[in-house]
Amino acid sequence: MSLSGLMKLGVLPVRPSLVGLMIVLTVVTGLIEAVSLLALGPVFTAMQTGNVLFLAFGLARQGNLPALSAALSLAAFAAGAVFGARLESVAEARGWRWLGLGLYCEAALLLAGAAAGWSVTPRYGNPGAPHLAVTGLLATAMGIRTVTSMRVNVPGLPTTLVTRSMTALIGSSALGRDSAFGYGTGAWARRAMAVLAMFAGGLGGALLLRAGWTVGELLLPAAAVVLAVALAHRTLPRLHTG
Length: 242
What we know:
The chain is mostly helical. The protein is built from nine helices and no strands. The two termini are about 20 Å apart.
């Protein structure tokens, strides 16, 4: 198999420091999705597959799922992805640290979401205007993040979803024994960490909501962690997508 093929399968080593940063961002995604689904929704702001289905079910008026939140999140995510793609490609062309720049923008949007939702009480179903405003800010941030993660391209660590990581983990395990997914290599560890990181973030967010934290109180530490990751990246060599 070619070198590029092995890289796509995630069977080649990646700098541990970069893997660690992507793991931390995956935890943040789990936390944000806990806020989105349990406190603002039902809606997702990173995993847009769910919103496509929520929108379809809402338009069919089945399942008591409002279509407005899903449509807003999809539109805001798309806007964030467009902004992120243009921003980071231009930044890289000029020799700037595009990864850090994307994360700074994400952190700013999360801070704005924390400010807008500081006194917003978590609500599941029938979101009000403040809930929709925070949803739009989070979805925009996650659109930028998804572009950033895809440009970084750490195999098995997309940071905003874990379906592919889980499938590859199972396929490369002693049960799957599929060499196409890197059976017999150490790639399984990175994939397992991605799944556990998303779980940990979601669990932590749900527990904090249960403890009475407001939307803003949950988003403030999320923004701080993303900003810390952006600053930590400055100690690493610059990334090039070419």
